[in-house]
Amino acid sequence: MERTPDGTPVGVDDPYAVAGVCDHLTDDGRCRFALTRAGDDPAFAAARRADGYACHVGPDGAWRRCPHYRSTTDGRECHRCGLEEVRIAHDDERPLVEEHHLSYGSAGGGEAGNGNADSDEEGEAGPHEITVALCRWCHTKVHKSFARIDDDASPDPEAIAERESRNGRQQEELSFGTAAERFDPDADDET
Q: Which residues are registered as beta bridge partners of 31?
């Protein structure tokens, strides 16, 4: 199993098997990295420009070959148990769903964080940043045990309770109350 730079498991043997489409890929198949960040890798950008900025990986999805591949999560639902995120505006509570790194890329620890540095697969351009969303309960299980991100799991009872608590507070905020009802200084005296 792949490991973090600290040595804890990430819950998957091959991050690329779980990874999604590259964050730099546009809807029309062009490489956004080459379009917007040409100065970061001029040779790569020049090669993409010569090919109409088309993604050089193509439809086969062999993301390992791309030096700028990156797949990060939207963080809306736990990849392992399916728990959905509930955020309340103007609240600093810890999120229910967190970003979990399967591979850290060069910014997060280089070869040690990637775990694929010893890969003998031809054409590997890594290390790449690959993340999925995990609820904080699954996140803990993955890092502190042999739990895998592709396990058939259901949400932890604590996670469901926290989500329902947030849903209740969200519904309270949506209910209509006049300003007089909400901010009347005499209303507190009546209760």
A: 25
- Convert the pLDDT of each residue in 106-158 to its tens digit: 643 333 333 333 343 445 666 889 999 999 999 999 999 889 999 999 999 99
Q: Domain extents for the chain?
A: 1-21+71-175
Check: pTM over 0.85? Answer yes or no.
Answer: no
Report d(CA 31, CA 114) in Å as an integer: 23
Strand pairing partners for 131?
A: 101
Which residues share a beta bridge with 129?
70, 104
DSSP string, 45-93: HHHHHHTTTB-SSGGG--GGG-TT-EE----SB-TTT-PBP---TT--P
**Residues 29-46: tens digit of each pLDDT:** 999 999 999 999 999 999
Place of tokens 């730099």: 24
CA distance 6 to 3: 8
Chain position carrying tokens 């290390």: 127
Cα 151 to Cα 141: distance, rounded to the nearest angstrom: 11
- Residue whose structure tokens are 């990986």: 57
- Phi and psi at residue 15, to the nearest 5°: -55, -30
d(CA 140, CA 136): 6
User: What are the tokens at 25?
Assistant: 């890929």
Give pLDDT, residue 160: 96
